[in-house]
């Protein structure tokens, strides 16, 4: 910490070393395929020399640029505001009132941890405004921890002092068994094959790879070879999903601190996210199909100003609990809400008309797709005709199954302080939303819904998804649900029915 005038301070001076090391690593990674691709034409020694010179040049430029950023950037934290200024070439001054600070996100990658620094992002909970947050990149790790706690401390924090430090949940390594049933498993398996082909191309070994596969599995039929490759991809995907779970959730803990929620996690990239209690509007219990089969679920928070996942993040920042046994997920959701009634509320099912509406749409979709293939088969080739009837046989029961699955997942209900909405096909979502956080209702009904006497009722809130729907509910039940959930909000728009 380097103090300047009037309480201004500079960022941590080790930012130059951190930037230099990162840029050098990236440049070296880019140089490898370059050297391998041109080594045979120009000579390995010459290419290594050119690559080394390029790495030094790029790293030097990045180091100088970051040094100038460090020298001309300062910040200060007063009793009223958090300010960051940059005064070189382009001048900027960003300021956030302390009483509007809603999130403090502390991130530290492996290189930053090596130098004992971290990046601190301070936000007001507004997602669209560029002036709604300031970033201190980097500051000392100890200073970042102090700021993280102090910036969200409120004058009324003594009311929750008794719960300070209470742990809501911590990592159980038994939860890792849910990682392979996530959608990342096939994605990682396919990515591994792509990586092998790309690396073999760099080393000009693609021919050797194909030869090896032919020698190993040359006696198999095409179907057998495909089965072997799919099995290999699944194995690689399972291993990758297990490793990804360890990297994301190592050291996970969820606790209360001055009444706020604090989540820490991460092996290589550590993250500490603090959510102010006044921002909480509810929770969402999410059950993807594979996880639900194993009677497990994850918990997402519903909070105002919750930012979306960045491209460099492996998991959504709103996820408070990874896939865990359903009883654990329900307990964590109840503790976050401060009420067991919301998670224990029995939801009301929707009319049978909602089921037949889904069945019809599923069958219409299959008919349209296979019908198009059949027409193309009549015009082009008999192969498409055979493909059309095969897909009709396979997709019809699948469409009916998904229709019943979607219908079973429908439901809505009311608790003392929360409304509950359940929906989803494949991935079932049960949202418990604070009734006082509902700012409006959207009532919609398509011509097909009106024929069946159904409406979709969406509770609008300034948090997370923005709206939480009760799909295909009966007209009277839907309007009654909305009117009872937030009395008076919908009443002026209702007419007495005969």
Automatic annotation (TrEMBL):
It comes from the Bacteria. The keyword Signal does not apply. Residues 70-150, 407-480 form the YdbS-like PH domain. InterPro entries: UCP026631, YdbS-like_PH. Keywords: Membrane, Transmembrane, Transmembrane helix. The chain crosses the membrane at residues 21-40, 46-68, 178-197, 217-246, 361-380, 386-404. Coiled coil: none annotated. It holds the Pfam family bPH_2. This is Putative membrane protein.
